[in-house]
Specification:
Helix content is 28%, strand content 0%. By secondary structure, it is mainly α. The relative contact order is 0.06. Pfam families: EPL1. Its main location: nucleus. Keywords: Nucleus, Transcription, Transcription regulation.
Length: 134
């Protein structure tokens, strides 16, 4: 007996969820039409490219063996920054944070600006172009 595989969906707090009373529960046949099969992930290539023989061999070798031989993955080059340049960019008291990007999980609030700049603000800013930083 084969096991039916399906993708479990995460709950979305911003979408309404149907709630049924005992008498209103739909019949099983109504639920049988729901398609939750896992779709095939796109490869990022055009359909014609996916059918090319050499690409199919590389993809199947990657899946079977974990590598494709001489496959090269392009990566950006990394350079060491000389210490004098680093000292100019960062103050001596600089300490890097433990976490570069902080995201609040399950945040239901949208990021709405507290204030929008208007023409009066633009005029004031043009008269005071050099504001000292704190």
């Amino acid at each position: 007996m084969s096991k039916l595989s399906f993708r479990a969906r995460a709950l979305d707090a911003s979408k309404p969820m149907p709630i049924y009373y005992m008498d209103d529960v739909p019949e099983f046949q109504d639920f049988a039409t729901i398609n939750r099969a896992v779709p095939q992930m796109p490869t990022g290539m055009e359909k014609e490219e996916e059918c090319e023989h050499h690409l199919q061999r590389a993809i199947s070798a990657q899946q079977a063996y974990g590598h494709t031989g001489e496959l090269v993955i392009p990566t950006p080059e990394v350079y060491n920054v000389p210490k004098p340049v680093k000292d100019e960019l960062y103050p001596a008291t600089y300490k890097s944070s433990r976490q570069l990007i902080h995201v609040q999980p399950f945040s239901m609030d949208q990021d709405i600006p507290d204030y929008d700049m208007d023409s009066e603000d633009e005029k004031w800013l043009s008269q005071h172009p050099l504001i000292p930083t704190v």
